[in-house]
From TrEMBL:
Basic and acidic residues bias (residue ranges): 31-43
InterPro entries: Quino_amine_DH_bsu
Domain of life per record: Bacteria
Name of the featured protein: Lipoprotein
Lineage, highest ranks first: Bacteria, Bacillati, Actinomycetota, Actinomycetes, Kitasatosporales
SUPFAM superfamilies reported in the protein's UniProt record: YVTN repeat-like/Quinoprotein amine dehydrogenase
Region annotation Disordered: where it falls in the sequence: 27-52
């Protein structure tokens, strides 16, 4: 069976980590951050080609890369999906977990977060896209006690730690290879700090387990409180239209309307047991179709655009993801079988025994499905491979990449 998904607009493929890179396509005055303060804006704009980025090569297609890590040995490599080969990237702490914002990979361990520039990114200019590639490199570390979350906007990257603190970092400086802190937050509520444009959305604990969200500036100073309650806040996602926080009664969606932040609840529509609540969301980069485990029952799908939750009873799963409208829901079950479901009906469309052996109990939480507009990627720890899946074509295995270490951590960049 084949799927013919509708092609999403360019906005759906944007990435958070891009920020202020492409001054050449904007008003010439925007070039000041790249060409230097006080430089002649007109001459700088006219002397640089459209979409010029210093130190990067512009490409005609998406430059997808996989950042891979072995949580036991600490070895890290980067797999260039265009070239089909790997290169050493550095080392991460033992037991570290990898997360990404679309360009940068963050290796979170007990002592802090190591920051790596994958050297692959994409810039959305509304009516067209620019793709870039550069040399991957390590940038250093953001110190803190057990980072639990990292999220980015073009202006800020927020690191949230287990001790109730958070650090705000200038994202434009990360693009230049420098880690510059703009603000430090203390005594925040349980849950991730998530940048939204130039501000940070900060969970604040209230009475009875309820949380609200404050808006802080880039220095961490309070600007306002959004006031809407989010009971037992946990988990978040960044979409192309706003930020989603997971709540005991559904989701809190925060977007911008008429230049003001507008909070809105998206309820489950029924009472959901605590063990079936989402605690982490997975999607295509900036996608508005979010997926999450629903305990042993199956998978939640949240269509942010339609403000609708759907529960698909797949049974227990190790990993889940979807590219969004017109594409199937992909789940990897605990036996190592990859399955595709039609989201609207919950009907199973295809299945393929994929992993060489079922994930061990200690590895189930490290199983990953990374997804983009055309392919999905699944890490096979036992076989030391990454499988590339054409989910438009009955889960056909397009390629497999052999590695010399266990890919227990994997994130995709360049999207």
């Amino acid at each position: 069976m084949n799927w013919s998904p509708k092609k999403g607009g360019p906005v759906s493929a944007a990435v958070l980590s891009l920020g202020l890179l492409l001054a050449g396509c904007a008003d010439p005055g925007d070039g000041e951050s790249r060409e230097g303060r006080g430089a002649d804006r007109k001459s700088a704009s006219s002397s640089k080609p459209h979409g010029y980025v210093a130190g990067a090569e512009e490409a005609a297609e998406q430059q997808s890369r996989l950042v891979l890590g072995d949580a036991e040995s600490g070895e890290m490599q980067i797999l260039d999906l265009i070239e089909g080969r790997t290169r050493p990237l550095g080392r991460m702490g033992k037991g570290a977990e990898l997360v990404t914002d679309g360009r940068f990979a963050y290796a979170n361990s007990s002592r802090g977060s190591k920051v790596f520039d994958s050297g692959a990114w994409m810039v959305d200019h509304g009516d067209h896209l620019h793709y870039y590639r550069a040399k991957a490199r390590g940038l250093g570390a953001v110190r803190g006690k057990q980072p639990e979350h990292v999220y980015s906007s073009p202006w800020l990257t927020a690191f949230t730690f287990a001790d109730g603190t958070a650090r705000l970092v200038d994202h434009a400086q990360l693009e230049k290879g420098r880690i510059r802190t703009t603000g430090f937050l203390d005594g925040i509520g349980r849950g991730p700090v998530v940048p939204f444009k130039e501000n940070a959305l900060v969970p604040v604990a209230g009475t009875g387990g309820d949380s609200t969200v404050e808006v802080r500036d880039r220095k961490g100073r309070k600007k306002t409180s959004l006031g809407v309650k989010c009971p037992q806040l946990r988990g978040a996602a960044v979409t192309r239209t706003g930020v989603v926080f997971g709540c005991a009664d559904g989701a809190l969606f925060i977007t911008e309307k008429q230049k003001k932040l507008a909070p809105e609840k998206i309820p489950f529509g029924r009472k959901v047991p605590g063990d079936e609540r989402p605690d982490a969301f997975h999607s295509r980069s900036l996608g508005t179709t979010l997926t999450a485990r629903a305990g042993d029952t199956g998978v939640w799908v949240l269509n942010v655009a339609e403000r609708e939750w759907k529960l698909i009873e797949t049974g227990p799963v190790a990993a889940v993801n979807s590219a969004g409208e017109g594409t199937p829901l992909l789940v990897l079950d605990n036996s190592g079988t990859l399955k595709a479901y039609e989201i609207s009906t919950g009907k199973q469309l295809a299945r393929k025994k994929l992993l060489s052996s079922p994930p061990k109990a200690k590895d189930v939480s490290r199983a990953v499905i990374e997804i983009d507009a055309n392919r999905a990627y699944v890490n096979d720890m036992a076989a030391r491979k990454v499988h590339e899946i054409d989910y438009h074509d009955s889960l056909r295995k397009a390629r497999s990449f052999s590695l010399d270490f266990r890919p227990s951590e994997m994130v995709e960049t360049g999207r």
